[in-house]
Amino acid sequence: MDLLKPSRANSCPLTPLTFLERAATVYGDCPSIVYNTTTTTTTFTWSQTHRRCLQLASSLSSLGIERGHVISVIAPNTPPMYELHFAVPMSGAILNTLNTRLDSHTISVLLLHSQSKLLFFDHHFQPLVLRAISMFPPNIPSPKLVLITDHHDHAPSPSPSLDDDTYEGLVERGDSGFNWIRPKSEWDPIILNYTSGTTSSPKGVVHCHRAIFIMTLDSLIDWSVPKQPVFLWTLPMFHSNGWCFPWAMAVVGGTNICLRKIDPPQIYNSINQNHVTHMCGAPVILNMLSNCSNSEPLRNPVHFLTGGSPPPATLLRRVESLGFVVTHGFGMTELAGVVISCAWKRKWNRLPAEERARLKARQGVRTAAATTEVDVVDPVSGKSVERDGLTVGEIVVRGGSVMLGYLKDPEATSKCLRENGWLYTGDVAVMHPDGYLEIKDRSKDIIITGGENVSSVEVEAVLYSHPAVNEAAVVARPDEFWGETPCAFVSLKKQNERVSEEEVIEFCRDRLPHYMVPRTVVVVEEELPKTSTGKIQKGLLRDNAKAMGSLRQASRL
């Protein structure tokens, strides 16, 4: 047979933006977004969402936004945040969603690093944004600012330093017949996400249209999402773009129920009022729902996809008794979403509740489409570990959802994307005899609190800046509310010096985003335990933190 070659007809670039066009055709008169404010309910159909995104993309182009420019947004889960996932790349630009829990200095650093041309921001974050912009060097232009308001609710008047454009103003004056900017190649970047908001060396993950297209469809297949689900947004859309579910809901014509903040009574009310079928979020959301004073069994089952630190078996039992059907998975910003999930076997339904919960807490197996291969390997030899549930190794992944790399950081990219063709995750796990993997530790010392990554190195750097601190080490302590929280062990420069736990916490609160602040501080009378080579024994400190037991009270942060 003669060798056949690709043609223009069979090699057009894959992009998730085409999902919105299809949704407008198939589900045009069906609800796309429902958003309740204190005074009104806003509802859009899929044809309206499609038109609004085209109009916004048109206005962005008229402002001089070009292919490859970065547009940032800092906003909660509101309709504009959803629409920007389509409108920004439709203008040819790259979408950069910023963590709303970051401080002004970190936001300033990330805007500078990304060379963002425009920043959409919700009116609640106006003071934060203005502080961040004020930190720009005088010789570097700051991004154009566009205010997002709930126009039916009371919002602060724009500051005189703000530009005149508002979000709704850009939508209203845009062209609904705009011929949106299609990618030249499916490898063109579509999103930029920062992994942990680090202030010293930001790691900006860049994904292409192809990866998001694949990840979007894979998420729907792996979770068995039916047509026209009702999706409640309890997972922040800034967090790895809501694990690709903004684009996924367009594929199946789902209804996006947007919530400005996480409030358990409001979540239960929204579930019942809107007949919610699907939700995503960190285990902390499950914990909040299970501990809500007015929690009661749901009228209909709600499927809940969770990731991050494994939810405790007791928590899984509680939430499933309420009617939540929990699926546990593993993903990274570098992988665009959940690429390993605990695929459930029917025979497991016959097992005792404790055993079912133990199995469900495992991360599982690779998903169907996004990842070609997943393995647990010895970090030195690169060979697969024994499938005995005991031998630890590092999780490695390769496949269609893997990032292009870190923005402006070839060294970090090469450390993560190895020449042997694997992405090294830095997560330590075991492989069980049945082929399901389970995370045991994190080689990067990353603490996952409420679904957000905290670098222990960053927190330690702040602790070392305290005038009385001689040594510092930060590890994870179990927390019934957040999953785990930072626990700091410090020794003092002077043995007779007195520094209280509260003083150290307040010191950190003034210098870190609140979710990164230690909730526990242990002042050691002598020096911290060390190995024979002089390194602090973090493994021993982790054991000590674990022996303290789980924190039970709601967080002060």
Which helices and strands, and how do they pair?
Layout: H1 18-26, E1 31-36, E2 41-45, H2 46-62, E3 70-74, H3 79-90, E4 94-97, H4 104-114, E5 118-122, H5 126-134, E6 144-148, H6 167-173, E7 189-194, E8 204-208, H7 209-223, E9 230-232, H8 240-243, H9 245-251, E10 255-258, H10 264-274, E11 278-281, H11 283-291, E12 302-307, H12 313-321, E13 324-332, E14 337-341, H13 353-360, E15 365-366, E16 373-377, E17 392-398, E18 405-406, H14 410-416, E19 423-431, E20 437-442, E21 446-449, E22 452-455, H15 456-464, E23 469-479, E24 483-492, H16 501-509, E25 520-524, H17 538-547
Parallel strand pairs: 1-10, 3-4, 3-5, 5-6, 9-10, 9-11, 11-12, 12-13, 24-25
Antiparallel strand pairs: 1-2, 7-8, 8-18, 13-14, 14-15, 16-17, 17-19, 19-20, 21-22, 23-24
Helix pairs in contact: 1-2, 1-9, 2-3, 2-6, 4-5, 7-9, 11-12, 12-13
Detailed description of the structure:
This protein has 557 residues and is an alpha/beta fold. The chain has 3 domains: 41-208 and 220-254, ANL, N-terminal domain (Rossmann fold), CATH 3.40.50.12780; 262-444, ANL, N-terminal domain (Rossmann fold, 3-Layer(aba) Sandwich), CATH 3.40.50.12780; 446-547, ANL, C-terminal domain (GMP Synthetase, Chain A, domain 3), CATH 3.30.300. It is built from 17 helices and 25 strands. Strand 12, helix 12 (313-321) and strand 13 (324-332) form a beta-alpha-beta unit. The longest helix is centred in the N-terminal third of the chain and has 17 residues, at 46-62. The mean pLDDT is 89.
